[in-house]
Design brief:
The chain is an alpha/beta fold and about 725 residues long. It has helices at about 40-45, 50-100, 110-135, 155-160, 200-210, 230-240, 260-270, 275-285, 305-310, 320-325, 325-420, 430-440, 440-475, 490-500, 510-525, 530-620, 650-660, 670-680, 710-720, and strands at about 1-5, 10, 140-145, 180-185, 185-190, 215-220, 245-250, 300, 625, 630-635, 640-645, 650, 660-665, 685-690, 695-705, 725-730. The longest helix has about 100 residues, at about 325-420. Keywords: Coiled coil.
């Protein structure tokens, strides 16, 4: 095996004119060394030898840093797991209390809460799986080649590995269909399926999953118009906190049969740095669509096809290879590994935990804010219902009295007629029963009751509809909080009750017989000699008997009516609905409080993780850098890192480049002022409270309201600073 005297790389073809690793001209040498250690020859040729052994030493140190990163991430995971278990026990106690609310047992909200906890537990467990997976692969520094289909990913891989070109695509078809690992200079290079291809959703997923464990991303673009789909992919990668190096593959047909003309054109294209920079800036401008900043991403241009055809295995053309600028691509990658590789290994482990935790905290604060604001929606409807109830009772009382008077008048009118026609009728009691039955009094009572029930149901339905609409507005359609309160079907519910209780309005057994006895006794007596006096006396006795027998029946029917209104309409319909609204308000306060508490606990753990990353950043930058104290900290991986410190000496530009994030230091100690600066508006606290039976506050939650809507990144950072949900008012 022969080796390059400059860099010690393997020379696979003896007649090669130049080194594929460093571009060194091999024509100056009569023979190639059989040993990598050729210091004497290097000295003779005055060559600054880049020794493979030195890179291997760097990679060994990288592995040691990876172990530190693993230990750090694992410790923070264990802390989070224990914290969540403590919070889970609190929620179990709350669930037990909630399950006793029979009207709420089957609501989607409680089910959502339980499922939400399961999802949270699964997501936290997934963090541990990712940490262990990364630990298993930590011996290798991992680089992922990422780019759209036919951008030149496979060509890049073929050049690095001196392949035969079999994997290079021949047309518009998808060529790299799976994830493939190769090794170059001790680095594991992974070629993933091309993204943004038609029908390539599964390819995109595979590529993204592979990128999650990478220490470094090589993002490959072409110099034709950058696509929005590529920008979306880069935004996803940056959201993982991944450092990115950009490579622009100049797309020009290179014809070795017309070598000189092609070479001249290639040099002209690659020397047009203004055009290439314009393409880079056009692509970076997509970042604002994702609330990101990509100005820190460096790009290097190359012509991959020229580099490929110029390899010793093919054209063996030093000039073409040099013109392709691929040697600069290799130096670009190796310099990043040598300079920042150790830090990137630690950061990779930190971010494998930090990225999902950051998202979880953001979601929990959003859910907490929605739950607490939603509780006020339910509370407002409860208040509205109670206000309506007062006027409803007054109206029903008045209408009930009027209805009773109306029934009494009907009875009195019919009774006068009946007495005039039946004062000598020995079967007056039986006939009066028939007469009363013909008046359809039960139907009249039921009709009145149905009117009252309909009015109640109309209001319930009105409030339910308003509630549904307002919840949709407050939750922005993110969660379907349908108003489910057990059996609250309008009309049918009360109609069933009325029909089942219709017998209560039927006259009691024996009432007519009592009238008959009374009438019989009256007609047998002839107290007066004057016939008219006897008739008058008989009418009076009959009337008194009818009143005595009928009034208790009417009174019973009226009492049953009032009881039905009170028990079934007011108590079950109105008061039951109120209790449901109140229960839901309390449930949402409990839920929002629990969500906010869990988010805050995780937020504190997340901050402690980022403080460790900050320490590594300080150590890795200039020796004079220091931070005397961390007053607060907020971070969105891959985007922003905000440090609040009174005394900090740290080069923000260098830190930004190292982290691949916009690093800023603020000296504002007042969290309210800092948050207001972030979201561009003053925030005001809003409290949510629950009271015990003695009127003491048993639970209190807090959110902050803001009028203006900042971008979601700054909004999330503001919540991390204040450790509370922030909701846009109105």
């Amino acid at each position: 095996m022969k080796f390059c005297p400059k860099c010690g790389a393997k020379v696979l073809v003896p007649e090669a004119k130049f080194c594929m690793e460093c571009g060194f001209n091999l024509d100056n040498l009569k023979t190639l060394t059989n040993d990598r250690e050729i210091s004497d020859m290097s000295s003779v040729l005055n060559i600054d030898k880049q020794n493979d052994a030195n890179l291997e030493m760097e990679l060994q140190v990288c592995r040691e840093y990876a172990e530190r990163g693993y230990t750090l991430a694992k410790e923070k995971y264990v802390e989070m797991q224990q914290t969540l278990e403590d919070e889970r026990q609190k929620l179990l106690a709350a669930d037990k209390e909630q399950s006793q609310m029979s009207r709420l047992q089957n609501t989607k909200l409680i089910e959502e809460q339980k499922q939400g906890w399961e999802r949270l537990a699964n997501r936290i467990s997934k963090i541990n799986e990712d940490i262990e997976m990364l630990h298993e692969r930590q011996k290798d520094f991992s680089i992922i080649i990422y780019g759209r289909t036919m951008a030149g990913k496979s060509t890049l891989m073929e050049i690095l590995t001196h392949g035969n070109g079999a994997s290079i695509g021949k047309g518009a078809q998808r060529t790299t269909l799976d994830v493939r690992d190769y090794y170059w200079n001790g680095l594991r290079i992974t070629d993933v399926p091309g993204v943004c291809s038609f029908g390539g959703a599964e390819d995109d997923r595979l590529a993204f999953e592979a990128a999650r464990s990478a220490d470094l991303i090589l993002f490959l673009l072409t110099d034709d118009a950058p696509q929005a789909g590529e920008a979306e992919c880069l935004a996803q990668l940056r959201s993982l906190g991944k450092p990115v190096l950009g490579i622009i593959n100049v797309k020009m047909a290179f014809d070795m049969n017309r070598r000189d003309l092609s070479l001249k054109k290639l040099r002209r294209l690659l020397e047009d740095t203004e055009r290439i920079e314009t393409i880079c800036q056009q692509f970076k401008s997509f970042a604002k669509n994702y609330e990101q900043d990509w100005q820190d991403i460096e790009f290097v241009s190359t012509h991959l096809n020229a580099a490929f055809v110029a390899q010793p295995e093919r054209g063996n053309d030093e000039d073409v290879f040099a013109a392709s600028n691929f040697a600069q691509v290799e130096r670009f990658i190796l310099d990043k590994v040598r300079t920042d590789g150790k830090f990137l290994r630690i950061k990779n482990f930190v971010d494998i935990a930090a990225v999902p935790i950051c998202q979880i905290v953001k979601e929990l604060y959003a859910h907490a804010g929605n739950s607490l604001i939603g509780s006020k929606v339910w509370a407002s409807k409860a208040e509205e219902l109670m206000a309506w109830r007062e006027t409803f009772i007054e109206r029903i009382q008045k209408r009930s009295d009027e209805f009773a008077e109306h029934i009494n008048k009907i009875i009195e009118n019919e009774m006068e007629k009946f007495v005039d026609e039946n004062y000598e009728n020995k079967k007056a009691g039986e006939d009066w029963e028939k007469k009363v039955n013909s008046l359809n009094l039960p139907q009249k009572f039921n009709a009145f009751l149905q009117e009252v029930a309909d009015e109640c149901d109309k209001k319930r339905k009105e409030l339910s509809d308003e509630l549904t609409q307002e919840l949709k507005y407050h939750y922005s359609g993110s969660t379907d909080f349908a108003v489910e309160m057990g059996d609250t079907t309008p009309y049918a519910k009360y109609a069933w009750h009325i029909a089942s209780n219709a017998l209560m309005f039927v006259p009691g057994i024996g009432w007519a017989a009592r009238i008959g006895i009374g009438v019989g006794g009256a007609l047998l007596g002839m107290l007066f000699n004057n016939k008219e006096d006897n008739i008058r006396e008989n009418k009076k006795k009959l009337h008194d008997a009818l009143v005595e027998g009928t009034n208790p029946m009417i009174e019973k029917m009226h009492n049953d009516l009032v009881r039905t209104i009170n028990e079934q309409i007011l108590e079950e319909g109105v008061n039951g609905f109120y209790r449901t609204l109140e229960d839901m308000e309390n449930l949402l306060v409990n839920l929002g409080t629990a969500q906010s508490e869990i988010a805050t606990v995780l937020c504190k753990k997340y901050k402690s993780l980022n403080i460790e990353l900050l320490k590594e950043t300080i150590t890795y930058t200039k020796a004079s850098a220091f931070v005397s104290s961390v007053d607060n900290i907020a971070r969105i991986p891959g985007q922003y890192f905000l440090l609040v410190s009174e005394n900090c000496k740290l080069d923000c530009l260098n830190a930004s480049i190292l982290l691949g994030e916009n690093f800023q230091v603020k000296k504002v100690k007042n969290n309210y002022h800092l948050v207001s600066d972030l979201i561009g508006d003053e925030i005001t606290p809003k409290y949510f409270q629950e009271y015990d039976e003695d009127g003491n506050i048993s639970m209190e939650a807090k959110i902050y309201l803001a009028d203006k809507s900042a971008n979601t990144t700054l909004w999330s950072m503001a919540e991390q600073i204040i450790e509370n949900p922030i909701i846009m008012e109105g």
